[in-house]
Specification:
Length: about 575
């Protein structure tokens, strides 16, 4: 009984207690063995079963054995794409490894032993009619498929020649299949899948209506925002303001500097339209559009400079006395753009007895009908609903087209594919995220930052003054800005990468993808599309990854442009279906 159980375990039918008891689980394992080797599955270890078990256990086609037929076996394995072994009579560990890999790929018991089932599968592929030097009527169909999916210029006939073999090998390599040039079962299945590839649509139902979802979004403490009205003035009740003469910013996102010079790295603040300041005097500085006139100003107690085309040195400004709404028109029942707290500054356009017209903020509360245009899933581009846990299922060479010229990310297609497979995150979404966070592969965190441990064992950034005092110095990478917080992004991102062991670009891509997947795709709300990230239909409000109502729509063109560089990618869309 012990030898029976040991034999079953060796062949992949194990997890039994090795003793003399023939229990229910042993009977199950015996039945599975019988079924696998095409015996009558009784669960009884009859003489035929025991004889076959012993025959396989004692076969010379296993690690540590040697036999004259092993060299023939190795030749066959090499021919069907599992080579790399020395061709001799010894069945070593690498031969067992290659056999196990073959078994795993073809759904067999991965025991590393060439048993009858494994031998049959090897011979079936080795003797396939779909290989160089043979003819078969089905080759017409297969050649047409290869031609149409881009492995073309093959003469369409029944002959499998050397050029057909070359194209099949290219296809197998791109699809990460064993490269043999033989159209085996797996290659034919993958060829058919790619040839018949279709756009797949799913629907996810939600127990709420579009109108209910709209009401929930508009009722959030920060409702959907938009810049659609940024050029429109706002209105506030005059009695709610204290007035004064002051300077103000008239442009959008205006840099104010420590010197009137645009050629140096001297930006102190980037100010929004309407921000007020104290005007000091006119000065001369570097030319902007042929104009060298600048204003010297006081802002937050600092002497700074702004070009005169981006600011007004004298304008009527005001501060808000108490919390006040900014309206679309001179009516309190008109749309509320936003609310200002006491002490907020505004730039006055026109002061009236009841209402004062002001320059408004860029970002404002969106109107109901405008939000609906972005909220209704049926009105959105399909790519807002691209399932970001799916893969385009293309080769690394195709992914590399997207990465061409993208700094350290150039040529990293295989790493993104591995990251996608390991963490179930779409390669193109990962690339989009990485390009944004790394400045298209050119940031310091992307190019590598040295980190070491100080005398207390804490990781710190390496510099010329502390290098000699640090131990375990590594150059680390962070492709997704993980742990890189505003204000100390370089330091925090590098230390996080050091702790994670991301000491290569590949490791940073593959390891970082885990956090992208957990945070954005596979969270409890399954926000696995751009639409769901923005609107979170399963739990509206939090988490939602933007307040801009058009955020998801604005991501589409970038994702689409990358997909346009791929040949025949799989497209899977998951569209919310409201009640």
């Amino acid at each position: 009984m012990i030898s029976l159980k040991e034999g079953l375990t060796k062949l992949g039918f194990g997890n039994m207690n090795i003793n003399e008891i023939y229990g229910n689980f042993t009977a199950i394992r015996v039945s599975q063995f019988q079924d696998y080797y095409d015996l009558r599955a009784t669960g009884v270890a009859d003489p035929q079963t025991v004889e076959l078990l012993n025959e396989i256990v004692d076969t010379p086609f296993q690690e540590g054995e040697s036999h004259s037929s092993v060299s023939t076996l190795k030749e066959k394995l090499k021919r069907i794409g599992f080579g790399g072994m020395n061709i001799n009579e010894a069945y070593g560990s690498y031969t067992a490894k290659r056999v196990s890999e073959f078994q795993s790929l073809y759904g067999l018991k991965a025991n590393g032993i060439v048993d009858p089932v494994t031998e049959s599968h090897i011979d079936q592929i080795y003797n396939s009619p779909y290989q160089n030097g043979k003819e078969h009527e089905d080759m017409i169909k297969f050649k047409e498929m290869l031609n149409k999916i881009g492995y073309g210029y093959i003469n369409v006939n029944e002959t499998f020649g050397s050029f057909s073999e070359q194209k099949v090998k290219e296809f197998q390599g791109d699809m990460e299949l064993p490269v043999s040039g033989i159209l085996d079962k797996l290659t034919i299945e993958k060829l058919t899948e790619v040839f018949e590839r279709k756009i797949i649509y799913y629907e996810t139902p939600y127990d709420t209506t579009v109108n209910e979802q709209l009401n929930l979004q508009l009722g959030l403490s920060t409702p959907p925002q938009t810049d659609l009205y940024s050029s429109s003035h706002g209105y506030i009740l005059t009695d709610n303001l204290n007035f004064e003469q002051n300077g103000s910013i008239t442009g959008s996102g205006v840099n104010v500097r420590s010197a009137p010079d645009t050629t140096k790295n001297n930006v102190e603040y980037t100010l929004a339209r309407g921000t007020t300041f104290e005007y000091i005097k006119n000065v001369t500085g570097t030319s902007v559009g042929g104009n060298t006139e600048w204003y010297e100003i006081k802002y937050k107690g600092k002497t700074l400079y702004v070009h005169n085309s981006l600011a007004s040195k004298k304008s009527l400004s005001a501060t808000v006395k108490a919390v006040s709404n900014i309206y679309e028109s001179k009516r309190t029942d008109s749309h509320t753009y936003y609310r200002l707290s006491s002490g907020s500054s505004v730039t006055v356009v026109s002061k009236g007895s009841t209402w004062t017209e002001i320059n408004g903020r860029t970002w404002r509360n969106a109107k109901r009908n405008d939000v609906l245009q972005y909220l209704d899933p049926q009105k959105q581009d399909d790519f807002q609903h691209l399932l970001l846990s799916s893969s385009p299922n293309v080769s690394s060479s195709q992914i590399n087209r997207v990465l061409d010229g993208k700094g350290v990310l150039d040529g990293e297609g295989s790493a993104f594919i591995e990251a996608s497979k390991k963490h179930e995150v779409n390669e193109i979404y990962l690339i989009s995220h990485a390009l944004l966070e790394t400045g298209h592969g050119t940031s310091d965190l992307a190019k590598g930052i040295e980190v070491g441990e100080n005398s207390s064992g804490n990781p710190v950034l390496v510099n010329s003054s502390n290098r000699s005092d640090l131990t375990n110095v590594e150059e680390v990478y962070n492709m997704f800005g993980i742990g890189a917080y505003d204000g100390s992004a370089k330091r925090d991102g590098a230390i996080r990468a050091y702790k994670e062991g991301w000491d290569s670009v590949d490791k940073a891509i593959i390891g970082g993808a885990k956090f992208i997947g957990e945070s954005y795709i596979h969270n409890q709300n399954q926000q696995n599309t751009l639409y769901k990230m923005r609107w979170n239909p399963s739990a509206p409000g939090y988490p939602q990854y933007a307040t801009d109502m058009g955020w998801a729509a604005k991501q589409v063109s970038n994702i689409k442009s990358m997909y346009d560089k791929l040949d025949n990618p799989i497209l899977v869309f998951d569209i919310p279906k409201y009640r």
